[in-house]
Amino acid sequence: MSQLKTIQDEDVPIWLPRLAAHGGPRFLQIADALQAAVAAGSLKPGDRLPPQRQLAAQLDVDLTTITRAYDEARRRNLLEGRGARGTYVAAPKVDLMAVLDLSMNTPPPPDGVDFDDLLKQGLSQVLMRADNASLMTYHLAGGSDADRKAGATWLAPMFGQLDARQVVVCPGAQAAIAALILALTQPGDVILAEPASYPGLRAAATQFGRHIIAVEADQHGMLPERLEQACRQHQPGLLYLNPTLQNPTTITMPERRREALASIAQRCNVRIVEDDPYWLLADAAPPPIATFAPQQVVYISTLSKCLTPGLRVAFALIRDPHERERFLCALRAFALMAAPLTAALATQWILDGSAERLMAGVRDEARLRQRMARDLLAGRYSGAGDGLHLWLALPAYWHSLQLARAADSEGIAVTPAEAFATGSVSANAIRLSLGNIKDRARLRAGLQRLSDLLARRPESFSAAVV
């Protein structure tokens, strides 16, 4: 709630929010109250706000609090500066390219977490405690000792206590996958994967001259008997699996299936790349495949899906020291290292508990959005109830590419099944990613428009001639 007064000599509306003692950071309370006043119409576009020092005195807070509140309000497109004339309530922003992007799999913004503050505090702690020179130089050993210990801490929910020397810090999961392909296979080798798999695998394999062959899967993931047949027939160099909230199908492999696949890989002497970005987001995920065949599996866990893609930090658990060195040599050929500053920030967040708080917020927000999708896509929803995406089987009258084009024409970006196919396309479906649209109301609007589109039979879409 807020009240409005007027100073006669300046004719400036004084907007005074009431600050609660236990209402969270004061700068956010001020920004929230300003947003509420604009929504209610008590502050209108073009209204001039008081100078920051004046408002700080009125509210009995320091100037920094007001500066941060105004900065936050500008970030929300509520205010605009007009130089010496002061700060004014902004006119509503018109987004001429208002594409609702349901194609990019990123973690949603967690409710109640001030990410800007988290970032500033984390970097402040890093710069205060670290040797700044070491943050600006090369690191050739797969991360500093502290970074590898943080990686072992990050992986502890999956594996318990780990030897940090077995953990390699990588500049993202994609770099780790590419380095494993280079280190563990030769040009022309076969890589086995499920019929619908992470597109980054196909991109790296194609670039390096390897061949991906799809192995049949069912509702529990890759079929063990089909894997054994493929191993005997193709003598693969690698087996790629994404067993938890699989991208794109959302399937989580049950424990018995994981154990069976690990046993076959051991018997056939095939190395497994277990790409597991969503394990920490899943509800009661089974043990990783790497627990059943520790020497046979390289396990990858990225922060990009649980915290933020901007860190570009992933951890690879490689137990064999010779294999670890081969992996590092391959990684250095194209990526050299994870950026020390962002790796140090990831380490700081993991060790001080910020990563866990942020991830808990992401997990809660992702589940809320899954419930929203289930309600709006009733009868079509095929998500897992958690995770960042869902896999939407289409009615027979829509084809996935056709639906993607039709959605695009209505300002909605989705990803068709073809983007994930490792062989012939085996599903008529699209993947919907629920985290990339920050505002829940816009996400709801996009899902509703998509639901309406799915209910209609397709029309012919042809390009206009002008």
TrEMBL record:
One Gene Ontology MF term: pyridoxal phosphate binding
Family matches, as CDD domains: AAT_like, WHTH_GntR
Domain HTH gntR-type positions: 24-92
InterPro entries: Aminotransferase_I/II_large, HTH_trans_reg/aminotransferase, PyrdxlP-dep_Trfase, PyrdxlP-dep_Trfase_major, Tscrpt_reg_HTH_GntR, WH-like_DNA-bd_sf, WH_DNA-bd_sf
SMART domains named in the record: HTH_GNTR
Record keyword Ribosomal protein present: no
Keyword entries, A-Z: Aminotransferase, DNA-binding, Pyridoxal phosphate, Transcription, Transcription regulation, Transferase
Family: In the C-terminal section; belongs to the class-I pyridoxal-phosphate-dependent aminotransferase family.
PANTHER family xref list: HTH-TYPE TRANSCRIPTIONAL REGULATORY PROTEIN GABR (PTHR46577)
Protein name (record): PLP-dependent aminotransferase family protein
